[in-house]
Amino acid sequence: MLDAFTSGEPELSLAELAARTGLPKPTVHRLLGDLVDWGAVERSGAGHYRLATKLFRLGQLVPRHRLLREAALPQLEHLHQVSRENVHLAVPDSVYTLFVEKVTGSQATAIRSRVGGRLPSHCTATGKVFLAWGGQERLRRVVEAGLPRLTPRTIVLPGLLHRDLERTMERGVAVTWEEAEHGVSAVAAPVLGAGGRVIAAVSVTGRTQALDVDRLSQAVRSAANSTSTALSAGF
Question: Which CATH topology does 2-58 take?
């Protein structure tokens, strides 16, 4: 039931939750009562509910993500100083990319990403990192789940996506051109864990007309590599 909430619809009614979960209204009402008592959900007035801060506090305690954020944060802050744009740290989450950290500022382009938010893998730079280096099984799951079109430039044909991921591996960075949001582009590089496995991605996201991908690619790779080194050193 908690998965029914999204960044676009953070508040839902009892009827909406019942429809999205397929559960009877009495069951949803009982579960909501338990979640409210526990602190995971709170009433937002007029019969609506939203996620509560206890979930955020618990999320900060997840060891893997906490250690990853600690290793990456100095690199993310430096990358923001270089780019003056939005800098993300993301991890794979099913067919999505999940943002676990974001560094931004007053000069950065206003975008809709947020810590704890998810976007489809096929139209985000961090998501393309996970698809390019994540093996055929991950790509198969994403394609089977569907490739929704978020903008006119979103790649929605599996063949075109596969070719784009091949170019991603050749470049060493993933790039999106207004594929998730109008006027917004991004470049991302992989963070490696034990055995050279891709466990996260670092990205810079900003206004297309001002984003110098050639210049930023090296900076993004450097930040991702430094994060990988910090992780191997004990994080």
Answer: Arc Repressor Mutant, subunit A (1.10.10)
